[in-house]
Structures are given as structure tokens and as C-alpha cells.
């Protein structure tokens, strides 16, 4: 396996592809090209390690090992059988095969997934007399297949657990926001460490923790393990040097102008537990309070927040009352601030009665949302 000029694909939350292009290029990726729900790029395995370590936006890094055309399940099986899988990982590694497809004519993707698994095991049995075991919960090696109408591409996952699992959070709220979406919201807001950041409905603190990691220049993957460590070409010397360099570049843990409020004490306790577990206690200033009553913590800054969406029956009426009050609070308490509010309610600008200067489409999982931008000045334009 040539270590240079490998091809990779990094999935990300939909709507953040352009941000990921910029981030990957900044980390040294070549031939960077945005696609649907992710970004393709080229580079060596040092780059692969670096992106897993530093990317705040990617969900994982998939190593493209090859592909070809197919007409039926047998073609997919033969294509997978053509790879010398023992070159990639040892037979004692557990595996799982996952598949996504767009416009595939095959009747059963589940059966096709099993045929890829059979091909991997058959190739191992032919080469070693043994076959790897399957572990769908915590596999050592994840194999991804992507089918179009006539091509099958195979990838090895170099990340393991999704990259938004920073290895930091201990408690999640009722409707947790994935860390990479929270990081993307912060980047889209234009917030810069050192300037005040305020989440008045912070829940378990995901946006606040991502801001703290940025402010202290902490690489999001510096405290976790990765799938590439289970592959045969893993270079521990290169990886340890990259991680040590990242850790040495961290800023001292000290209070930042990052503020969190929430109406519910149990949510704030979750946020505090998460910050303490991450070694970030004291970096973020937390207080309990009702968003409609609390003052802004500084004269100006950036608000980034993920309020309730009202996706359950009966909540729409409550939000129809809440959002106008939120608009009043922004105008009364937050003149001089720029506010970024994530919502699945496309009528938010009409309800909040402020003019949104920007609406950025984002997906929170499968839920289509918009990140609404409000530049709040004294006497803000009312709807």
C-alpha cells in the first residue's frame, strides 16, 4: 500500500461542507472537493492522522481503498473479494460492514452488505485459514460501502467512533446537539476567541464546550483513540509526535468571556459535569436564569444558541408565545450583539419579529433547520 496520494472522504453535518473544505485545506489536504454531506480530498496518512486530531467539523475520515462497476450482488461480492484484506488489518480484529446507497437498483441492501462481509471473511480464510469476527457494537475495523446506480466504492474508517465524540462529554441533555454542528455554528457566527460569547439556553453545554476548546486551542481529538490505530499501517511514532505537538500548543486553562445560562438547574448541572470532566471547569461562566429575564453579560458580543424547536405535538403553541418574547428580550437586553439562533421552525423570523440578515440551511441529524442571524442594534427593525 503506497502511503502517499491516498484518497479520503470526510462526511459532515449537511450545510457545513463549505466550512469543512476551508478547514481541510488549512490542515494540508489536497484536491479538496465538496460533495453532498461531506468533502473528498487527497493526502498521506500523516494528513489523515492530523485531520482526525484537529477537525472540528468532520464526522469521520474514510479512506477510499477502491471501487468499480456492478450490476448485481455477485458483482459487489467479487469486487470486495478482489482486495487483499489481510494487508489492511489482522484477522484478530473484529469488523462491521455498513452501507449507504443512492439510486441503487439492488433489492436488498442488507443482503448486499452481508455479501461484502462474506467477501472479506472469504479472503481472510483463503490467506490465513481463519476469518475475522463481526462485532456490530464496538468493532475494531469499520468497512463502509457506498453504492450509486452502477458503482460500488469501499472505504475503511480511520476514525472509529464519530469525530464529534470528543471523549469529553459525560452528560447529554434531552435534545443534544452534536459537537461538530455546534462548532460549525460558532464558525458560521464569525465568533473569535477573546470576544464575549453567550448561550442563554445552553442545556448541557455543547456550544459552550466547543467554544472553550477553540479558545484554549485544544485539538478536539487529543484525548481519544481512533480507528486508524487498529490498521496494519498505523505509525505510532508519527501519531504520537502529532498529538504531543497539539498538546504543547494548548493555552493555559483560565476563565474566558464565555457565558452560559439555562432555566433548568439539572441542565446546568449536566453542563458543569461535562466541563469538569473535560478539565475546563472555570473556563465557562455558568448561571441559572430565564432567557427572557437575564441581562447580556457584556456590552457586545456573539449569541449562539439552540432553543427548543417544538417538534412534538403541543409545543408549537408554547413556542408561538415564546419567540415574540425572545425577540423583545434581544431588543431590550442585547443591543450591540449579533445573535445566531438554530431552529427547525422556518417561521421563526415572523414570530420573533426581527429581521433576519441571514438564513443558513443546516441539518441537525435528519432534521432540517436554519441558522438565523440577527444583528441587534438599538431600535432593531421589527417585522
How would you explain this protein's 3D organization?
- This protein is of the alpha/beta class.
- Helices cover 31% and strands 23% of the residues.
- It is built from 10 helices and 14 strands.
- The longest helix is centred in the first third of the chain and has 20 residues, at 109-128.
- The radius of gyration is 23 Å and the shape is elongated.
- The relative contact order is 0.12.
- The mean pLDDT is 93.
What integer is the average pLDDT?
93
Count of DSSP-assigned helices: 10
Q: CA-to-CA gap between the ends?
A: 61 Å
Biggest sheet features = 7 strands, mixed
Low-confidence stretches: none
Strand order of the largest sheet: 2-3-1-4-7-6-5
Strand-and-helix sequence, N→C?
Answer: EHEEHEHEHEEHEHHEHEEHEHEE
Strand content: 15-25%
- The outline comes out as elongated
Q: Kindly report the oligomeric state of this protein.
A: single chain
Q: Supply the helix-strand structural class.
A: alpha/beta
Radius of gyration: 23 Å
| Amount of helix | 25-40%
Overall strand count: 14
Amino acid at each position: 500500500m503506497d502511503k502517499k496520494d491516498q484518497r479520503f472522504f470526510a462526511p459532515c453535518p449537511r450545510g457545513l461542507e463549505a466550512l469543512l473544505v476551508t478547514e481541510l485545506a488549512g490542515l494540508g489536504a489536497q484536491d479538496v472537493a465538496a460533495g453532498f454531506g461531506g468533502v473528498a480530498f487527497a493526502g498521506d496518512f500523516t494528513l489523515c492522522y492530523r485531520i482526525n486530531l484537529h477537525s472540528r467539523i468532520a464526522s469521520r475520515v474514510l479512506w477510499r481503498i477502491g471501487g468499480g462497476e456492478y450490476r448485481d450482488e455477485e458483482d459487489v461480492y467479487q469486487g470486495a473479494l478482489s482486495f487483499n484484506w489481510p494487508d489492511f488489518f489482522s484477522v484478530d480484529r473484529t469488523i462491521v460492514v455498513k452501507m449507504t446507497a443512492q439510486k441503487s437498483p439492488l433489492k436488498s441492501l442488507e443482503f448486499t452488505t452481508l455479501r461484502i462481509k462474506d467477501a472479506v471473511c472469504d479472503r481472510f480464510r483463503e490467506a490465513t485459514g481463519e476469518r475475522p469476527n463481526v462485532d456490530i457494537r464496538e468493532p475494531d475495523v469499520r468497512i463502509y460501502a457506498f453504492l450509486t446506480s452502477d458503482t460500488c466504492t469501499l472505504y475503511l474508517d480511520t476514525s472509529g467512533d464519530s469525530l464529534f465524540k470528543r471523549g469529553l462529554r459525560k452528560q447529554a441533555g434531552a435534545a443534544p446537539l452534536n459537537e461538530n454542528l455546534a462548532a460549525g455554528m460558532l464558525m458560521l457566527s464569525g465568533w473569535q476567541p477573546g470576544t464575549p460569547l453567550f448561550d442563554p439556553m445552553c442545556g448541557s453545554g455543547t456550544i459552550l464546550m466547543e467554544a472553550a476548546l477553540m479558545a484554549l486551542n485544544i485539538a478536539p481529538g487529543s484525548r481519544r483513540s481512533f480507528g486508524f490505530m487498529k490498521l496494519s499501517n498505523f505509525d505510532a511514532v508519527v501519531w504520537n509526535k502529532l498529538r504531543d505537538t497539539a498538546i504543547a500548543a494548548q493555552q493555559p486553562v483560565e476563565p474566558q468571556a464565555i457565558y452560559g445560562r439555562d432555566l433548568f438547574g439539572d441542565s446546568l448541572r449536566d453542563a458543569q459535569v461535562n466541563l469538569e470532566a473535560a478539565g475546563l471547569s472555570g473556563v465557562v461562566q455558568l448561571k441559572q436564569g430565564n432567557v427572557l429575564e437575564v441581562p447580556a453579560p457584556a456590552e457586545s458580543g456573539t449569541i449562539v444558541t439552540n432553543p427548543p424547536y417544538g417538534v412534538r405535538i403541543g409545543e408549537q403553541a408554547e413556542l408561538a408565545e415564546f419567540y415574540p418574547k425572545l425577540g423583545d428580550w434581544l431588543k431590550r437586553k442585547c443591543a450591540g450583539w449579533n445573535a445566531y439562533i438554530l431552529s427547525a421552525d422556518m417561521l421563526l423570523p415572523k414570530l420573533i419579529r426581527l429581521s433576519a440578515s441571514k438564513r443558513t440551511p443546516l441539518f441537525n441529524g435528519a432534521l432540517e433547520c436554519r441558522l438565523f442571524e440577527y444583528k441587534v442594534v438599538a431600535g432593531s427593525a421589527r417585522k
